[in-house]
């Protein structure tokens, strides 16, 4: 998809702040510093729409990006970041859980993992949480450009097995440097609202 129009509509913390209307929404989940902002920016062809921070744990709200008046990307706070208080982490968890389990417009969660490393316990828990609630999932394995091509399949296998990936859940290799996987990711997203 060629993206011409993108706007950050709102940074929400409560359901009453979510945008109105029935455009399909896709939440982006992943641990802090996994490359969610880079993924968003690559997908929409912008350099700095989603702010990339050298400080993990920067996203503390649900950021609703409206794309082409067609759909929303919803960037949720990254998980697994130790430098925020337990209380703060619990508040984020509650906010994310409320959104994911109660939002009718949510079509799928895009779970972003780092292809270079096996999924973390938090990744596995997040995937299990989505399966428990029957929420469709697209797995994006980023940073593929940092691994030799000859090892891609091995790393994909580790990701698939660690998450115990269910039949039908798509696992897409991605690089925000080279654009690898961008078209595939758009196809997967579109399959949920066509």
TrEMBL record:
Any one GO MF annotation of this record: GTP binding
InterPro entries assigned to the protein according to its UniProt record, in alphabetical order: G_ENGB_dom (IPR030393), GTP-bd (IPR006073), GTP-bd_ribosome_bio_YsxC (IPR019987), P-loop_NTPase (IPR027417)
UniProt key word Magnesium: yes
Keyword terms: Cell cycle, Cell division, GTP-binding, Magnesium, Metal-binding, Nucleotide-binding, Septation
CDD domains, per the entry: YihA_EngB
GO cellular component: cytosol
GO biological process: division septum assembly
SUPFAM superfamilies per the UniProt record, alphabetical: P-loop containing nucleoside triphosphate hydrolases
One Pfam family linked to the record: MMR_HSR1
Entry keyword annotation includes Magnesium: yes
Residue span, EngB-type G domain: 22-194
Listed cofactors: Mg(2+)
Protein role: Necessary for normal cell division and for the maintenance of normal septation.
Protein family membership: Belongs to the TRAFAC class TrmE-Era-EngA-EngB-Septin-like GTPase superfamily. EngB GTPase family.
Name the record gives this protein: Probable GTP-binding protein EngB
Organism of origin: Rossellomorea aquimaris
